[in-house]
Amino acid sequence: MATQTNNDDRIALLQGTLDLLILKTLLLGPCHGQGVARSIQRQSEDVFLVDHGSLYVALQRLEDKKWIQARWGVSDNNRKARFYSLTAKGREQLTEKTGEWRRLTRAMGLILDAAAEEA
């Protein structure tokens, strides 16, 4: 089990990043909201802690865009929950947004590395 990190070590998610992380998480299969949040936290080695208010707003936004769909089911702890899954349109967006994110991080790396060499 991963060690809980200090809250100061966590990084705030950039606008739009949560959508990409949700889409990527749902690529693995249907999941309820709490499961999505735990998966993001676990995969980021506890760097990203998803606020539930932000999560459910993002899930609703993605559902409105038809990138994900929801159905009611029963969670592992026997509670009624909405399970979200990726749609074909969501898969297309995941591919597009992943490419954008990779271009962004490459450009940031170029700038940061150049700034380090100049210093």
Describe the structure.
- The protein has one domain (15-118): Winged helix-like DNA-binding domain superfamily/Winged helix DNA-binding domain (Arc Repressor Mutant, subunit A, Orthogonal Bundle).
- Residues 1-5 have low confidence and may be disordered.
- Helices cover 55% and strands 13% of the residues.
- The protein has 4 helices and 3 strands.
What tags apply to this protein structure?
single chain; 119 residues; alpha+beta; 55% helix; 13% strand; elongated; disordered N terminus
Q: List low-confidence stretches.
A: 1-5
String of helices and strands: HEHHEEH
Counting H and I runs of at least 4 residues, what is the number of helices?
4
The whole-angstrom Rg is 16 Å
CATH hierarchy: architecture:
Orthogonal Bundle
Named CATH topology = Arc Repressor Mutant, subunit A
CATH class, named Mainly Alpha
- What portion of residues belong to β-strands? 5-15%
Summarize the structure.
The chain is built from 4 helices and 3 strands. It is of the alpha+beta class. The N and C termini lie far apart (40 Å).
Topology:
Blueprint (H helix, E strand, L loop, with lengths): L16 H11 L3 E2 H11 L8 H13 L3 E7 L5 E7 L1 H31 L1
Antiparallel strand pairs: 1-3, 2-3
Helix pairs in contact: 1-2, 1-4
